[in-house]
Amino acid sequence: MKSRITAVLALVVAAGALPYGLGSYTIHVVDIALIYALLAIGMGLAMGISGQINLAQVAFFGVGAYCVAILTTNNGYGFWAAAVLAVLATVVTGLLVGIPALRMQSHYLGIVTLGLALGFINWITNADISGGADGISGVPVPTLPGVDLSSEYLYYYLEAVVFGLGLVFGLFVVHTSLGRRLRAMRDDALAAGATGAEIPLLRMTAFVLASLYGGLAGILYAGLIRYVAPETFSLGNMFILLAMVIIGGRRSLVGCVVGAIGLTLVREWLSDFSTYAQLGYGAVVVLMVVFAPTGLAGVPARLRDLYRRRFGRTSDDRAELRPFTPYTPGPEPSQDGPLLQVAEVSKDFRGLRALDEVSLTVDAGEIRGIVGPNGSGKTTLFNVVSGFYRASAGTVRFAGADTTRARPYALSLAGVARTFQNLRLFGQLTVRENILVALDRTRTYTIWQYALWQPGVIRRERRLRGAAQSVLERYGLVDFAEAAPASLPYGIQRRIEIARAMATRPRLLLLDEPAAGLNGEEVQQLVRIVRSIRDSGTTVVLIEHNMGLVMSLCEKITVLSSGKVIAEGTPAEVVAAPEVIEAYLGDSDLSELGMSAPPSAERPSPAKEATS
Amino acid sequence: MKADAADAARTLKVEDLSVHYGGVCAVRSIGFTVEPGESVGIIGANGAGKTSTLKALMGLVPRSGGRIRLGDRDLTRVRARDMVRHGIGYVPEGRHVFPGLPAEKNLLLGAYSKPWDKETQRQLDEVYALFPVLAEMRDRLAGALSGGQQQMLAIGRALMSRPRLLVLDEPSMGLSPILVGSILDVLLKLREEGLSLLLVEQNAKLTFGATSHCLVMENGEVAMTGPSADLRHDPRVREVYLGL
Amino acid sequence: MQETLQTLVGGLSLGAVYALVALGFSLVYRTMGLVNFAHADIAMIGAYAASTFYLTAKLPFALAMVLSILITGAIGLVIERVLRPLENKDFDLMLIGTIGFGIVLQAVAILIWGTTGRAVPSPVRTAPLDILGVRVRTYDLLVMAVTALAVVGLGFFLARTKRGAAMQAVAMDHEAATAVGIDVGRSNALAFAIGAGLAALAGGLVGPMLYVDASLGGALGIKGFAAAMLGGFGSINGAVVGGILIGVLDSYTAGHFQGYSVLATFLVFTVAIMIRPMGIFGERTVSRA
């Protein structure tokens, strides 16, 4: 920590001293590089941090620059007044360009944003107000009392301050609540929704952030060059910007900055061979995505990995999964009606009926098991209850309210949490951050604090971190807090998923095959965890095909087959039902075999020993 | 589809087959043989490792160990796409037909490894004779067929390569008892014609009916083996299923 | 009425070219699930190559086209081979990788052909026809005919040949395709090469209609993309309908908004695609939790 502060201080001092050693042309190049660095931060926030493919960053850049140019030369505004309006205009543009992200993602979004950028270029090249292909010259020098900003040396300091603040703010966003949610959305939008993140608003936020940086860069550009023309905002420059972000490392803002400054300098240095330079960085982009997708920023981590693999593990050896600390039992849930009520729910997929008038009532304080053969609709039922699918018919009520049409985040905030059959942890976040995302129960609108009241963000952050530590301790995960989930054994990942779901403090916990892939000992731990969760006051519904687990854990079991409920009752009743045997083994005759009396749920272990 | 003399020696022998996903062991060194003309079943509850066993056999998931021989040929290093050229036809779990192609195109693609000639046409007619409903639906997109028809299509597609061994992964999945019954009839007919079968199933009734010999899998290992007729009356099978 | 008809005819020929570009996009997307952002630049290379063979080497137009198709087909094979490690893994990375290839191809074009563009004279020198008072250039008719031929040919290839069926099967289920004995990698490479060939065809045809320079790919590509999306990504019919729609829209906005036609086209396109993200012929895919 101390060395890091020293390094930052050294960088600040070096940045302050930099102009003294540079010629007038070099300082101009540095000024340009800083502008690109700001642009790259915005691009990194949208693409690398939030996973929104944004190929309209040059358009944001252009809106900022052109607004200043038009307002100062055409409307007689002062530079700073124009700058404020330019920021507003850019953010509004960002919101508009971001709207398609609500409906489409990935390549679709890339094409739409690129198309809009092309439209913008087309407009500035042809409109009278933007000076057409000639652009606008004569943008006034920004005025600052006592400082002559027409000097590129002094302008450097203005830029350095804006850039420094921009980088710090960007890093602040990335490493606190908002950024964590954005990264969670990037890694797995569905799971992020299930932990309470409002995906549509977050996508818009990503575009607002990108446009904010784009606008700032545009304003600085207009003030520096004092002339704007379409070629600065061309698609070619858009792709160079993309190359900067990819080569530097899109998931690290510092990486984006390094990429931007580095590539600007290289481009300037090779300006006599610009075509070869273009060939070069195109090739580097291709090589990067194939061999080093994390960019330059990811190189240290890769080297560390390599080193560790080469020379054996060092510190991780002592890491172990600690035992689970049970919750303190909560009060008996008040019995005013069922907690979850699924009434005649059907779900069709292109003519295929996955759920057929399923009705199910779960009381508060239950542990309910849902079993059934492959393809019987168990996970579909969970998806309907947790808001991922909308039922084709029927209603779902949670805690008395109709939630048939509720979105996943709304259900999460209302107290429904779930795990996933195929593990959906946020892969690029640490285990601690996975928990932090779930602990964060605030609505997205609270991000106004980032703009106006940062201490509020920091205070909340401190509170969340305290809570995360206690969740990690309770689930015995402290040793893995800073690890990437994918690097951990499967059993631990399963436990992290439960911890993450419980971190949302749900009233209803849906577990989708929590025992899949666990060994015997881990299954026993799971039983203890689930019991404790129930005793703490959270109702549990679990899908499971490990029948032994279901038998020993659940008071009541619902059996699905071909999308229909075919049996419901205590484990003993369900196991004895001919329909269940038929569904599982395909043969009702087998139900008469062997055991005359159905086994009691209380003693599953002796029978288990007999088979193994 | 008759097995000729040359095939008599072609026994499928699987030894020490293991599969790991990440750190999880899904299949732990299991072994079995399928004699020519024999039909063998692998049953067990969900998650017991049956599908992983088949996929590993077919080379569709990486094996962490094991040897596979067919007659005197070593198939351990044969790529998944070449298995069909060694006479092994595969019916994947969950049907996996090509939904956007017509039913007949699906069948023809089953014969991809052979030239599309008169022989293919004759084979097509045989499949249509086996599944008359497919002949009616030949121009319909496979994705628009019912679950049962898709299953028949998947079996028919595998038969188009004229396999000597047909490997089926849970053909009863999501089908009603009546349809499971008709799948059983088809399997029995194929067996009569001398085709070797390897059937992975959760549905024990279907498996016991269609096979002569069975393995019962539990937690990635073989819990029991024996003639299907004996296992049918063994109460332990039920225990494995219901996890008692 | 007359004017509307003239706009329509003008849009049809450009639309036919967009349709060809969209067809290549769709084929690659349909078989590999890859959106090839370098596609546009491949078309640009195709346009340059065809014009060079035609103007400099004085080869017949048709032969020049065939040669340029072969060259771009080879480029397609290279791109597919380099990006193959990312297949079925990271969609967005693969997309950025193709953008990288696009940058490289543009640089290559400038190195070979320089920054000044070239105008390609029409290979058909007959006077425009007059049909019901609408002026139709004969070259436009040729473009439409070639496009129609390419669509029919591609349709035939996909529907009637073994390789074509296999290529579609790979896209629908690569595991099942493997099990029936299809070499997935080779099938993808072929799809990519055909896609690139279609791009070259579009580029070669558009040469005499527009000005050939290094930025040709940009406009052609993005409109081709838009056409593919509008029609429904991966659908052959969709590519054709989408291409014609974008072409007509383009020609309409050019008539009514002059300088702002690109902006107008993309605004209309954005609104349309937001109303129906899966396009006209596309199918909504179910996202599984």
- Biggest beta-sheet profile of chain B: 6 strands, mixed
Measure the end-to-end span of chain B: 42 Å
CATH-defined superfamily of the domain at 1-86 and 202-244 in chain B: P-loop containing nucleotide triphosphate hydrolases
Strand order of the largest sheet of chain B: 6-7-8-3-9-10
Approximate strand percentage of chain B: 25-35%
Shape type of chain B: globular
What portion of residues of chain A is helical?
A: 55-70%
Q: CATH homologous superfamily of the largest domain in chain A - what is it?
A: P-loop containing nucleotide triphosphate hydrolases
Number of self-contained structural domains of chain A: 2
In round numbers, the mean pLDDT of chain A is 83
Low-confidence stretches of chain A: 590-612
The whole-number mean of residue pLDDT values of chain B reads 84
Give me the CATH architecture of the largest domain in chain A, please. Answer: 3-Layer(aba) Sandwich
In angstroms, what is the radius of gyration of chain A?
Answer: 29 Å
CATH topology term of the largest domain in chain A:
Rossmann fold
Q: What is the CATH architecture term of the domain at 1-86 and 202-244 in chain B?
A: 3-Layer(aba) Sandwich
Q: Please summarize the sheet with the most strands of chain A.
A: 6 strands, mixed
Give unreliable regions of chain B as ranges. 1-5
> Can you count the helices of chain B?
9
Please give a structural write-up.
The complex is a heterotrimer of chains A (612), B (244) and C (289). Chain A is an alpha/beta fold and 612 residues long. Chain A has two domains: 2-233, no CATH class; 340-605, P-loop containing nucleotide triphosphate hydrolases (Rossmann fold, 3-Layer(aba) Sandwich). Chain A has helices spanning 2-17, 24-49, 57-73, 79-98, 106-126, 152-175, 177-187, 189-194, 199-225, 235-248, 253-269, 274-291, 299-311, 378-385, 408-414, 431-439, 448-452, 454-474, 490-503, 520-535, 547-553, 571-576, 578-585, 604-611; strands at 136-137, 227-228, 340-349, 352-362, 367-371, 393-398, 401-402, 416-418, 508-512, 539-543, 556-561, 564-569. Residues 590-612 of chain A have low confidence and may be disordered. With 244 residues, chain B is α/β, with parallel strands linked by helices. Chain B has a domain at 1-86 and 202-244: 3-Layer(aba) Sandwich (Rossmann fold). The longest helix of chain B is centred in the C-terminal third of the chain and has 16 residues, at 177-192. Chain C is mainly alpha-helical and 289 residues long. Helices cover 73% and strands 3% of the residues of chain C. Chain C has helices at 2-32, 39-56, 61-83, 91-113, 138-160, 162-172, 174-179, 184-206, 216-231, 236-257, 261-275; strands spanning 118-119, 129-131, 134-136, 211-212. In chain C, the strands form two sheets. Chain C has a two-stranded antiparallel sheet with strand order 1-4. In chain C, a hairpin with a 2-residue loop joins strand 2 (129-131) and strand 3 (134-136). The longest helix of chain C has 31 residues, at 2-32. In chain C, 57% of the residues are buried. The model of chain C is unreliable at 284-289 (pLDDT under 50). Chains in contact: A-B, A-C, B-C. The interface between A and C is large, with 55 and 52 residues.
